[in-house]
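Notes for week 9. Today we move from apo structures to complexes. The key idea is that a small molecule is not decoration. When we ask for a structure prediction with flavin-adenine dinucleotide present, the ligand SMILES becomes part of the input, just like the chain. The input block below holds both the sequence and the ligand string. Read it once before you look at the output, and try to guess where the molecule might sit.
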Amino acid sequence: MMEDIVTVFPAVTILRNEPLAHYTHTKTGGPADFLAFPTNIQETKSLLAYANQEKLPVTVVGNASNLIVRDGGIRGLVMILTKMNHITTDGQTVTAESGAALIEATKVAQAHSLTGFEFAAGIPGSVGGAIFMNAGAYGGEISEVAISAEVLTPEGEIRTLNQKELDFGYRHSSVQDYHDIILTATFALTPGDGKAIQAKMDDLNARRAAKQPLDLPSCGSVFKRPKGHYTGQLIQEAGLQGLKWGGAQVSTKHAGFIVNIDHATATDYLELIHHIQAVILKEDNVQLETEVRIIGEEPTAK
Ligand SMILES: Cc1cc2nc3c(=O)[nH]c(=O)nc-3n(C[C@H](O)[C@H](O)[C@H](O)COP(=O)(O)OP(=O)(O)OC[C@H]3O[C@@H](n4cnc5c(N)ncnc54)[C@H](O)[C@@H]3O)c2cc1C
């Protein structure tokens, strides 16, 4: 029965048993049974309806920059939305389909001399992933600019959520609780000076490049910032910076990142994460919570 999905949607690219390591920013992760790349809202809606009818579990992925997929992979249907990526502007708002790169949305804002989005100029996620995570950097956060998002509920209904309903918190939005699929998001910005906006974006990107290991695969900050502490500092002070675990390593440039230096597996990443959490709990009595989303199945023992 499941085999049918590829033939039911001839216009959509759907790959069978496709390694997600080809798509994740950590370059790790097991296979998806079916990996689909819808190009518009109607295709996404139809794929969800079909999956519901066939009782296939559905997982949605954006740019896979905040994701660890366990080495056993993901059963059912995975949809990567990055081909659904139109961005439009209307006066002081930017509306983007959820698969659009957040970085592209900030470029569109700059091109229209709209300010307020500069903080996101270097966040390598999609618009959907940024809403889901309430992504933020350099004192700015998606919650400050997002005014609404159009979502597809698990039952297949399209709804528009306003800012209040999105219930943003630190790296949290209501989408995490209700398993909606974000289709579009609208951001309200302010008229500004195009050159000044570009200069700010360039400055933030230079600061990012100076501090972060952007030349190596990673998922950004692995852990949320615990109250009253800096994660990187805790990890450094515990002597864990530079620690290698299989092909993964606590970045020597930024202790809050774990980089893939030598064909790491998701298991290497997860074991290293657990080790760091155990050491920091023992030494500092601080429970580090992961910011990175961990999904998929454990590998089966061989
Ligand atoms: C080098 C580097 C630097 C980074 N810097 C920052 C930073 O400064 N600030 C910051 O906040 N983050 C940062 N990140 C993390 C990441 O870019 C953000 O969390 C981003 O918002 C994730 O978007 P994504 O599209 O990659 O999401 P994914 O990794 O694809 O998915 C993350 C979660 O969102 C869900 N999701 C994605 N799209 C949708 C959708 N359309 N509908 C419903 N659910 C969806 C997924 O199911 C998953 O649970 C960084 C990552 C890297 C690799």
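The longest strand covers residues 181-188.
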